[in-house]
Design brief:
single chain; about 25% helix; OB fold (Dihydrolipoamide Acetyltransferase, E2P); alpha+beta
């Protein structure tokens, strides 16, 4: 459905005999619409080197269409027309933003990232002043440019999703969960992490097999393996972390 401000009758539509109050209400509405603060967005392209994203703004703009000339121009721009002029509405294609910085959780000492691919969604936070100068030098600075609340001065925060795409399974109320096709501890991580439970089971099995393979009465070798097994059993429980788990 088009936005209420584009539907007739509407408190945002000026009557033919508009009063001063009607005009002020219209100005107030247009002023509010021009102040962009936040909006949902969808990733189109991500640059992992510069950590910039191209994305679409997922709040679509609808406008009232009053004549056929306007209708033809909007349709040529990709708008979807509903109804017939002078009481038609046109829904414009999503606005595409380019080279928007991504707000990864990070400090000077560390950071957390995850794959960001086309179709991922998030939220745009729109700066009240231009970000260009601050992004260029990274210290407090005069914005210089006069624009305010411009979509071009947005920051993309990954993670916001529609109600149709919740995290599955439900989020854990007892633990912090890190999920992904691959999890790296450090940017150059290449060595697989051993699974603690499986590692203990493998050592247990190796010790049992070694002891069973020694024929005849226990000798020094068998006693050594047995002593190692006793010591291993006494200490192995402390090897497993009760805090960090893996699949």
């Amino acid at each position: 459905m088009p936005g209420r401000e584009n539907v007739s009758p509407s408190p945002y539509e000026l009557p033919k005999d508009a009063s001063v109050a009607d005009l002020l209400r219209q100005v107030q509405r247009l002023t509010k619409l021009s102040i962009r603060t936040h909006a949902p967005a969808t990733v189109v392209l991500y640059d992992p080197v510069r950590q910039l994203v191209d994305c679409t703004v997922d709040h679509l703009l609808t406008v009232k269409v009053v004549d056929e000339t306007q209708a033809a121009r909007l349709v040529a721009q990709g708008a979807v027309l509903e109804g017939a002029p002078p009481n038609a509405t046109a829904t414009l294609p999503p606005i595409r933003l380019t080279q928007i910085p991504v707000a990864w959780p990070r400090t000077l000492a560390g950071y957390v990232t995850f794959p960001l691919v086309p179709g991922d969604t998030g939220e745009l936070h729109v700066s009240d002043r231009s970000l260009a100068q601050w992004r260029l030098i990274g210290v407090p600075a005069d914005p210089k440019l006069a624009e305010t609340h411009s979509l071009a001065d947005s920051v993309f925060h990954p993670g916001l999703t529609a109600d149709t795409a919740p995290i599955v399974p439900p989020t854990d109320l007892t633990a912090t969960v890190v999920q992904g096709p691959q999890v790296k501890l450090g940017p150059l991580a290449a060595s697989p992490v051993a699974k603690g439970t499986e590692l203990l089971a493998a050592v247990d099995a190796a010790l049992a097999a070694a002891i069973a393979a020694i024929p005849g009465p226990p000798d020094a070798g068998a006693r050594a393996f047995t002593a190692f097994q006793v010591a291993w059993n006494a200490s192995k429980a402390a090897i497993l972390s009760p805090k960090a788990l893996t699949e």
